[in-house]
Amino acid sequence: MLTEEKNKQAKTSKGEWNPQSWLQYPIKQLPEYPDQEELEKAYKKLSSLPPLITSWEIEALKDKLAEASAGKRFMIQGGDCAEKFEDCEPGKIVNMLKVLLQTSFILIHEMGVPVVRIGRMAGQYAKPRSSNWVEVDGEKMMNYRGDLINSIEADKEARRPDPNRLIQGYNSAGLTLNFLRALADEGFADLHHPEYWELDFMKQNRYYKEYKAMVQSINKAIQFVESISPTNYPMLQNIKMYTSHEALNLYYDSAQTRQVPRREGYYNLTSHMVWLGHRTRDLDGAHVEYLRGIRNPIGIKMGPGLDHEEAIRIIETLNPTREAGKIVLITRFGQDKVADELPDLIKAVEREGLEVVWSCDPMHGNTFKTDEEIKTRNFEDILSEIKKTFEIHRAQNTYLGGVHLELTGDNVTECVGGAQGLNEDGLKHNYETYCDPRLNYKQSLEMAFLIAQEWKLSYG
Ligand code: PEP
Ligand code: CO
Asked: CATH number for the domain including 379?
C-alpha cells in the first residue's frame, strides 16, 4: 500500500489529499526504512489499533485555542525535548503532570484568565537532527533520531531505522496517556496541597514575598472549595491535559489518521495537537502535505531566516477555511534575533487578517555549548526572549497567547541560572537529556511566575 502510494505521480500543485498522499512528496528528517516489507507490516498493524484520543477532545482543544487567539485564555505547552520509551514509568509521568499543573495554577492565579495545558507528552518520540551521520569512536553510523525511529545505542545496527518502533511508540504513548488520564480524573493529590510545593529556593529571588503570598492564596482557594464540598471537588477533578508532539515521523502519524462517524474530515488520533518543525516546514514537502489534511490544531515553528510570504502561504495551506483555534504560531527566534524578526512577521500575519494563537518558544533559539561542550540554555536568555516577545506584541497590539517550554518535573541540571543559582559547574550533577536541555522543576515554577508578571504588564 505504501509503495503504491509513493509511486503515484507527484503533484505539482496540491491535489487530492489522503492520509498517505505525503508519500508522493520529498520528505526531510526521516531516513528510509531499510526493510520496506517490515515497514508495511508495522504500518498496517498501527492502522488497525484503536485510537489514543478522540475527535471531540480535539475539537474541545480547538475551541480553547480559539479563545487564546481572541485574548481570553493563555496556553502552556511543555514537556521533554524528546521522550524516551524507558521514561514511560510512573515517577516521570507524575512529575511531569505535577509541574505542568503547578505552572498552570501559577499562571491562572496571576493572570486571572483560564489556561489550557498541552504536554509535549505521549508521543514526542521523534527528533530532527542537524546531520544524518555521526562518528562514534571512529565508526560512522546514523545519528540518533528519537526512540520512534532508532536506538540511542552507539551501534551501527541499533541505529538503523526500525519499523517496530512505531508500535512501541504507540504502546508507550498509550500507557502514558492512560496513567495521565487516571491521575487527572481522580483529582491529583498534590493539587490539594500547595504547601508541598518546594519553594525555599525562591528565597534568593526578589519576588519571594509575592510568590509565597500567591501559594498561600492558592492554598486558601483550594481549602475553600474543599470545605463547601468535602467529598467532591468538581473544580479540582477532571483536570484537562492535552497532548502534543512534532509530526515528524509521518508513518506514525498517518497510520492513526482516520475519519470518525458523524464528523467531516480526518483526525490524527495519536495526539490532540501536532506541530510542524522549523526544519520540515517546506511548502512543497511531505510534512506540509500531510498536515494540510487533518482537523487537529497545528503548531508551526517559526525561526530565524523565515520568509514572511512563505510563512503566510504555509498558514493558508494548513488552514484554508480560516478556522479559529486551528493554528498556533510558535516563534523561536532567540533572544538576540527576536526584535529584528518578529515585528515584520506579526505585521504580515495581521495584514492578511489571519487569526492565530501567538506562542513563544524561548528555548530553541537560545541553546549554546559550554567550554566543556555541554549543551545548555541560560534561564536569563529564556526570560529575555519572553520579555522581548511580550514587548513586541504589546507594541503591535497583538496578543501573546501562550508559551512553549522544554521542562521537566525532575530535579535535573540542564539549564543554568534562575533563583536556584545553577552554574556551569553544576550541570554535570544530574544531566539527563539525550536531546535539548530542559528547565527543571524549580526553574519551571519560577519561570511561570515571571511569565505571569510579563503578561500582567502587557494585558493585566
Ligand atoms: C523541538 O521543539 O524540539 C524542536 C526541534 O524545535 P524546532 O523545530 O523549533 O527546532
Ligand atoms: Co528541543
From this structure: 3.20.20.70
CA dihedral in degrees (374, 380, 383, 385; nearest 10)? -70
pLDDT digits (tens, 9 = 90+) for 137-171: 999 999 999 999 999 999 999 999 999 999 999 99
Nearest of 298, 356, 402 to residue 78 by alpha carbon = 402
Q: Is the CB of 332 under 6 A from ligand 1?
A: yes
pLDDT digits 0-9 by tens, 273-284:
999 999 999 999
| Domains of the chain: total | 1
For the stretch 99-145, pLDDT in tens is 998 899 899 989 999 999 999 999 999 999 999 999 999 999 999 99
Atom 1 of ligand 1 has which residue's CA nearest to it? 81
Asked if the structure places residue 166 within a domain, the reply is yes
**Residue 12 in domain:** no
With a 6 Å cutoff on the Cβ, whether 364 touches ligand 1 is yes
- 287 CB within 6 A, ligand 1: no
Kindly state the greatest CA–CA separation across the chain: 67
pTM for this prediction: 0.95
| Cβ(304) – ligand 1 distance below 6 Å | no
Examine residue 408 and state whether it is found in any structural domain, yes or no. yes
Query: In which domain, by residue range, is 331 found?
Result: 2-7+17-459
- Ligand 1 geometric centre to CA of 278 (Å): 6
Find the 434 Cα to ligand 2 centroid distance in Å: 10
Using a 6 Å cutoff on CB, does residue 82 contact ligand 1? no
Torsion of CA 152, 157, 163, 165, to 10 degrees: -30
